[in-house]
Amino acid sequence: MADDRTEAVRAALLAEVGAGAVVVDPDVIDGYRTDRATAVVPGLPVALVRASATAEVQATLRVATRFGVPVVPRGLGTGLSGGATAIDGSIVLSTERMRALSIEPDAMVAVVGPGLRNAEVKAAAAEHGLWYPPDPSSFEICSIGGNLATNAGGLCCVKYGVTTDYVLGLEVVLADGRAVRLGGRTIKDVAGYDLKRLFVGSEGTLGVITEATLRLRPAPPPASTVVATFGSVVDAGRAVGRIVTEVRPAALELMDRAALAAVERVQRMGLDTDVAALLLARTDGAPSEAEIVAAACAAAGAGYVARTDDPDEGELLMGARRMAIPCVERLGTVLIEDVGVPVPRIPELLAAVERIAAEHDTAIPVIGHAGDGNFHPLVTYDAADPDATARAAAAFDAVMAAALALGGTVTGEHGVGVLKARHLAEQLGPDVLDLTRRIKAALDPDGILNPGKWV
Q1: Rounded Cα–Cα distance for residues 195 and 198 (Å)
Q2: Predicted local confidence at residue 188, as pLDDT
Q3: C-alpha angle 338/403/332, rounded to 5°?
Q4: Pseudo-torsion of CA 25, 73, 34, 325, nearest 10°?
Q5: CATH number for the 224-405 domain, one of 3.20.20.450, 3.40.47.10, 1.10.150.130, 3.40.462.10?
């Protein structure tokens, strides 16, 4: 973008959005250019807008439309696929200051701004004896806006569902600056197209979410925790299949040997790093559920099975699982996969990842929400080594291909972003990709919303 046009865009933003929201200082902007997908090289934005209200988002998009400037929406930057990566000449639109919060206990809803952290919504609901279930591993630092943009899942979605299952209504600002309200406040609302679900998971490519009305649930009952270790990841995968055909646990997580070792290197927790895999389950139904999980693990060949009803001990184990990605990131640059497969194909996926790691001489620690078939093979490498970087890229592509060959998906909760944009077409096929592009063109005819992501 030419300097005079840059200055014109900045001047328009300052005049129409306001100096309190617009940042042109390159040192400040630099902190907003990328999310946690460190392997993605960000572009140089012309401005940063830190909106505090829907009107400021509307004004930003009107300016962007007038000048044909791309807009990259951003939450708190905890995304793992590069969905919030800035592009050259763009406006980065941060919703971190949009932090309105209202809990309505009788209606069992929360009306929230996108800048709130997931943990803050949980805490506010808990004050009224209520619960907001979606729980990404980064729930303490990720924003509701980012969760909505990627349709985030988490540890408990095997039983309780993902973000979209808790969205009753949205306020969304479209590319031309219009603000629309989608959905409502009723549990059953089937009038017209269910447009709110179109925007959940759209990663800022169709509009900018400025408010959400979220369903809450009563607080869950106390949970039991079962831990089991296995001599092979394939056996652990078979155990998952046995478990979910008999009971629906509140969480069912897997960590392989490399992931366990990465956590132990950072914080000594007494995890057994000699086993091939660890399964961690939580049950909050009948007492017999934990017994069923333990028996299924034993039948699948677990070498060790234990159960605890102590909430602190259970939370300590779940904390180890939540730490896995940050701990692996200390080993080098990480391309974080987010593939999903049908539960019966889990053993085949885990075997494929082991084979791919060996074939490409690349470390791929594996963690995952095993109960719903969503795994995170963590392709780890030394970014300073060109050969290692090339092997890692090939391994990343091979894992994607393996998941698709098993009838799976290239993302279960992290989104497509930059890292998986080229793989989306392989999953969708030409007809669905064409339909996707037509929807994008209808809502964003100038293509200004998060271009380069998805389609």
Answers
A1: 5
A2: 85
A3: 45
A4: 140
A5: 3.40.462.10
- For residue 445, count other CB atoms closer than 10 A to its CB: 11
From the CA atom positions of the chain, what is the Rg in Å? Answer: 22
In the chain, residues under CATH classification 3.40.462.10 are 224-405
Phi, psi for residue 6 in degrees, rounded to 5: -55, -45
Give the pLDDT score at 1: 47
Predicted local distance difference test score (pLDDT) of residue 455: 64
Q: What are the distances in angstroms from CA 74 to CA 19, 44, 46, 82, 371? A: 19, 15, 15, 11, 30
**CA 175/CA 446 separation, integer angstroms:** 8
List, in order, residues 6 or more apart from 47 with CB less than 8 Å away: 9, 10, 13, 22, 23, 24, 29, 91, 92
Q: For the chain (length 455 residues), average pLDDT per consecutive 10?
A: 85 97 97 90 96 98 98 96 95 98 97 98 98 93 97 92 96 98 89 95 97 97 96 96 95 96 91 95 94 97 95 90 92 92 96 97 96 96 96 97 97 93 93 96 97 81
| Fold classified for 101-218 | 3.30.465
- Cβ–Cβ under 8 Å, residues 313 and 364: no
- Closest to 185 in 3D by CA, of 206, 202, 171: 171
What gap in Å lies between CA 269 and CA 263, rounded to an integer?
8
d(C-alpha 69, C-alpha 76), whole Å = 22
Question: How many residues does the structure list for the chain?
Answer: 455
18: Cβ contacts below 8 Å, ≥ 6 apart: 56
Question: What integer pLDDT is reported at residue 2 of this predicted model?
Answer: 59
**Paired strand residues for 50:** 94
Find the helix packing angle between 54-67 and 3-16, rounded to 10°: 150
Show the tokens assigned to 344.
Answer: 């019966």
